[in-house]
Design brief:
With 337 residues, the chain is of the alpha/beta class. The chain is built from nine helices and 18 strands. It is elongated, with a radius of gyration of 21 Å. Bound molecules: aspartic acid. Aspartic acid (ASP) binds next to loops.
Length: 337
């Protein structure tokens, strides 16, 4: 195949070695492993090069720094490769996929993120299947967006979420159809149109914006969260019950949300349910949030909401614009109903 793919290894199980303290990412280890895998040099495979991030990280240690590093690598190599495969740990893969879907603006090439539940060096590894499929998707060029390839699914990056610690089909796309089913072939969903990149490709640098996630639970005492909600954080994703409901009387949360709003903190309402959309105002229990200026996250995953907050604040928008754009679809991450 006359296509050329850049593999970017960030760390994560797929390329890890083992030690008495468990699996860990080791510099150069994946490069050596890949040399032994002959199928990667099969004529049906694209040409490829591997680049490793320094340091390699278990993905639980990934921050905006790594999202910026990946963005810079894609940018520097954009014209030299037909597609990009990012090898990443599964724990925060959905966050990285979401973040890149925002920061890699006007993509006209595939960026496919993958990894594995079992390291490549182990005999039962799922890594080779995932890697080979991700490389083929990146070479085929049928998609020009950030996608997550894992098990039998190709998922829009900002619609993905990790749903299993152990299943080899570890990711789901709860609120959006799959980009492709992966079986004996990659069956692309032709109903999902790919956007034309009308402007030149660019990468938005992300800043370390103070952002938080608060998951409500029965009996939550909001007063203990007041300080961080009103002073410390610029963006908060509130994971509410069902379609956006919060426990307690409206009197408990309303003043805090109002204070947060006055302080310029953007409060985004997402749901603890995997499927479906937030609908603020549908129940009495969510009216307070709406009235106090909270933003509706509709069917966005928490991963998409968090990375979108990083992105919009890093773009330098004022609070009103951030709030407005949080409710708009900017990279296929939200369906408003
Ligand atoms: N802890 C690992 C990581 O996220 C898990 C994995 O890759 O599956 O880097």
């Amino acid at each position: 195949m006359d296509k050329k793919i850049l593999l970017i290894y960030t760390g994560g199980t797929i390329g890890m070695n083992s030690s008495e303290n468990g699996y860990f990412p080791q510099k150069g280890f994946l490069q050596e492993l890949l040399k032994e895998i002959h199928v990667l040099r099969n004529e049906k495979m694209p040409e490829w090069e591997l680049l490793e991030l320094d340091p390699l990280l278990d993905s639980s240690n990934v921050t905006v720094n790594e999202w910026n590093k990946i963005g810079s690598i894609v940018k520097e190599n954009y014209d030299s490769f037909d597609g990009f495969v990012i090898l990443h740990g599964t724990d925060t893969m959905a966050y990285t996929a979401s973040a890149l879907s925002f920061t890699l603006e006007n993509l006209s090439k595939p960026v496919v993120i993958t990894g594995s539940q079992i390291p490549l060096f182990e005999v039962r590894s799922d890594g080779l299947d995932n890697l080979v499929t991700a490389m083929m998707v990146a070479a085929e060029g049928r998609i020009n967006e950030v996608a997550l390839c894992f098990g039998n699914k190709l998922i829009r990056g900002n619609r993905s979420t990790k749903v299993s610690t152990s299943n080899l089909n570890a990711f789901s796309s709860p609120n959006y159809p799959l980009l492709a089913d992966i079986g004996t072939q990659v069956y692309y969903n032709t109903m999902i149109p790919q956007k034309e990149a009308d402007l030149p490709f660019r990468v938005q640098h992300l800043d370390k914006i103070p952002i938080g996630i608060i998951k409500v639970f029965p009996g939550i005492q909001f007063e203990y969260f007041e300080e961080i909600m009103t002073k410390s954080l610029r963006g908060i994703v509130l994971e509410t019950f069902g379609a956006g409901n919060i426990p307690g009387s409206a009197d408990a949360i309303l003043p805090i949300v109002k204070k947060a709003y006055e302080n310029g903190t953007v409060l985004v309402i997402c749901s603890q349910c995997l499927k479906g959309s937030v609908s603020l105002g549908a129940y009495e229990t969510s009216v307070a949030l709406k009235n106090a200026g909270a933003v509706c996250g509709y069917d966005m995953t928490t991963e998409a909401a968090v990375s979108k907050l990083y992105y919009l604040f890093s773009c330098g928008y004022d609070v009103q614009t951030v709030k407005q754009k949080m409710e708009e679809d900017i990279a296929g991450e939200i369906t408003r109903i």
